[in-house]
């Protein structure tokens, strides 16, 4: 596995996937309620999420690719999609690891 981690490697390398699964690097989604600093703010984006919903006719249960989550709340373009429309995240693993650190 050390040779895979030294890179370069293909994102489809089965050894990498096995390492991620075996070492619990990506945990399953939490079933706990959101832990937000400002839970009363329905849409912290600057209008982007409403534009997406308008363009996709209010699509429910969609997915998005997270590329820059910051803290997961401040100016989030996707929090509304998750909370009210049931969207799921396909995320940036490096940001996720930072957000999950205790």
Automatic annotation (TrEMBL):
Taxonomy, superkingdom: Eukaryota
Example of a GO biological process term: endoplasmic reticulum to Golgi vesicle-mediated transport
Family matches, as InterPro entries: EGF_Rcpt_Signaling_Reg (IPR053202)
Cellular component annotations (GO), alphabetically ordered: endoplasmic reticulum membrane; Golgi apparatus; late endosome membrane; plasma membrane
Protein name as annotated: Uncharacterized protein
The organism of origin for this protein: Orchesella cincta
